[in-house]
Amino acid sequence: MAEETKDKVEYISNVPNEIVFVGCILNNPDNIVEYGQWIRSKYDFSSECTRFFYDSFEVMYQSRTQKFTKENINIFMSEDTDRLKEYKQYGSYKLLEQWILMAKEEDINKSYEVLKKYSLLREYQRNGFNVNKIVNHKKFNTWKAQDIYRLIRSKCDKINTVINENENAIVLNQNVVTLVNSKLEKPDMGLITPYFQWNELFRGLITSSFMCVGMLSNAGKSRFMMKLIAYITLFQKQKCMVMLNEMTEESMQTCMLTTVINNPEFQTLHNIKLVKPEREISLGLYKDDSGDYIYRNKDENGKFIETVDEYKQRLYKESEEYRKVIAIAKWIENEQRGLIYCKDMRGDYSDQSLEFEIKKANLTNGIKYFFYDTLKQDVNVFNGKYGDWSQLKATATKLSELAKNLNAFVYGSIQLTDDAQLIDPDELTSNNVANAKQMKHVLDVMNLFAEIPKKMYGKYQYYSNDDINNDWGEPVAKELDHNKRYYIDTVDKNRYGRKEKLLFSLDLDLNQWFEEGIVFRK
């Protein structure tokens, strides 16, 4: 087929395939997540009609809805006068109904390959290449865009880059002065965390990076992650997405509430001073002004004689603690609206599903910060059995690639081996990561946390962050407080600077985490 311009130059095209591709988008709008990042409609669609509909659906998916019903499409088209005029010019939804019938879901990948192939050929034509020999070749229908590119590679590097978005190699000794001066205007610093040393060592949470934090089972991986999420959304006002395959959404909400109630970073925002354990929130236990728990009224046989609404009203009247928790909960709802997204991945946490959810969230909501709890190897969805342990590294590699391709920050919590508890807390390494120590190679940052047993407190000292950050004099070594619980955070890998052993004090039931400073053996 041919495309005709004002100069009567015929350009190679395959409009029926373009229609099939757009039809596949209509049948399954989520295909935009998979293929949209590679589509360049200016080059890939020779027909103004197919280009119009693809561009419209991409905007609709990103900014309106991911359900392409007749009603939704008509509403979207009618929101703009020029768009509506063009929509009617092409036949409105009656035309799209025909396209839907022409396309099948299994056609999308083949249609995409053909789309790119003809797009590349048109650019060769525009740059003076004679493509007739290629089109008339007996193997033309089996070739992909890259096959055609290799045929005339020496003259086509620039064209291939435009169409396929490959990156050109650069000469490293060029523009070095420009690089230096650009950092004066915009230092290479990521999102600030509530932890001084983390900001110093990792330069905050840098996009295009993948960080993992490892702990033993039930040691607080999810709780530590939740404080970071709360800080990013409530303090930094950045959007983030949480993907879960162990804890429920309700459990994470309870953890979020506990974190915001008890940590001073958030108390300065909502201005409510309160200490409330997560256990009491989960059990619905609240005290009166005398310090006694207020229970729902029962008769002598243990049957409730007070409705839930009556009980809530009495609680609100008699318990200042309950009133404060409700006030903080409402504050979270108002402040986090549109900033935190949660996805339960327990049904399917395959690499393909993870990639789709991350790309979709990035595309439709502009999310740059992703948290995955807990990082596990891909599961074989066909027979329900786990793959080999090397799959965890493959999953980590996929997450690392997504971080770089989407310019996003990805955080994964990982579990340490059971025998890690037999190792001194400052001697953990990636060998203690459950299932796959090799995953360290694809990470940008790896932190391994372990608790210091009380009997070992006398073996350690630390320089506090207050002393380290003070310009007056040398820091003074401090002893560990036997009334506190401590973890050592061993920075096992850090692409952004030096590695240290950091001291954290914590209370898991209050979900309080405080970075005390740099720890060392006496």
Number of strands: 13
Main beta sheet strand tally, sense and closure: 11 strands, mixed
Average pLDDT works out at: 87
Global Rg: 29 Å
**Total helical elements:** 22
Structural class given helices, strands, pairing?
alpha/beta
Q: Please give the order of strands in the largest beta sheet.
A: 5-4-6-7-3-8-11-12-13-9-10
Query: How big a fraction of the residues is strand?
Result: 5-15%
The residue fraction in helices comes out at 40-55%
How far apart are the termini? Answer: 79 Å
Task: Please tell me what the overall shape is.
Answer: globular
Structural overview:
With 522 residues, the chain is an alpha/beta fold. 43% of the residues lie in helices and 15% in strands. The chain has helices at 15-27, 31-35, 41-44, 48-63, 70-78, 81-89, 92-102, 108-126, 132-135, 145-151, 157-164, 176-185, 196-202, 221-235, 249-262, 264-270, 278-283, 308-318, 320-335, 351-365, 390-405, 465-468; strands at 2-4, 10-12, 209-215, 240-244, 340-344, 369-373, 409-415, 445-451, 460-464, 478-479, 485-494, 501-507, 512-521. The protein is globular, with a radius of gyration of 29 Å.
